[in-house]
Amino acid sequence: MAPKKKAQKSTPKPSTPSNSTAGRLPNWPPFQPLIPQSDLSLQDVLPGQIVTIRNLWTATLCKNYVSFLSSLPLITTPGKPKKGDAVRVNDRFQIDDPAFAARLWSETALKNLVLRSVHDGDLGSDAKRKELWGGEVVGLNPNIRIYRYSKGQFFDQHYDVSNNVDFAGSPPISTKTTWTLLLYLTSPATGCIGGETVFYPEPELRKKKGKDPPPEPFVAELEVGLALLHRHGADCMLHEGREVLEGEKWVIRSDLCVRK
Ligand SMILES: O=C(O)CCC(=O)C(=O)O
Ligand SMILES: [Fe+2]
């Protein structure tokens, strides 16, 4: 029998460090199939607050991921939230996986769409882009959260806070999160009823004693493969994940990180 050493020597190095901690990190399936980036675009659905990308992931990829994610050790929320935390009733898997975050950023259309979000060629587009994203976007938060909501589960109204995140490397980069990323893997098309993410825009400052009715809530309907980004931190809108009425809602959550 050939010594093991020899076989290993000829094995090409993986292009990402994800194998270095094999066994601990999930063996995430490849992002296939995907729609060509040129067919995707970023929609400004609530300017400055919410943008979406439809079909960032295909229905097939979402379906495959739901079966893969079902094999992970999801943990049901402990009944009582910590003081100041929102009531979240769902099953969650959370992991720090810089390689997966980097793949989700670069191997999908996300990076290109976010970095080109303000048309190149526009005067001052760099500054506009920085204004929109809250700085120079470096990538996605390696802290990846997977949510599964079954019938009766929900995420009560809350604000998402900004966190400091260090990107390893030489030199390392200090960043902070500015926008939440939610990637929906299920929808009514897969039997998930309810579970919409609902945002409550703040009423305008009523300097002129306005009697306008409060702004309508913005309801983000679940859509398979849709990526939703919303501003968080100081300018976060109050929002919630409505109760799931039928089926299962699956979401992958991360955040945009900008250089500090
Ligand atoms: O699951 C949702 O629709 C919302 C999730 C959310 O608000 C969060 O992760 O902070
Ligand atoms: Fe949230």
CATH C-level class is Mainly Beta
Spans of at least 5 consecutive residues with low confidence:
1-22
Q: Helix count? A: 5
Main sheet specs: 10 strands, antiparallel
User: How much of the polypeptide forms β-strand, as a percent range?
Assistant: 25-35%
Report the span from N to C terminus. 54 Å
The rounded Rg comes to 20 Å
Number of strands: 17
In CATH, what is the homologous superfamily? Answer: q2cbj1_9rhob like domain
Q: What is the chain-wise order of helices and strands?
A: HEEHEEEHHHEEEEEEEEEEEE
Give the helix level as a range of percent. 10-25%
Classify the fold: give the CATH topology.
Jelly Rolls
Bound molecules: 2-oxoglutaric acid, fe (ii) ion
Q: What CATH architecture do you see?
A: Sandwich
Instruction: Return the structural class.
Output: alpha+beta
Question: What form results from the Cα inertia axes?
Answer: globular
What is the domain tally?
1
| Whole-number mean pLDDT | 88
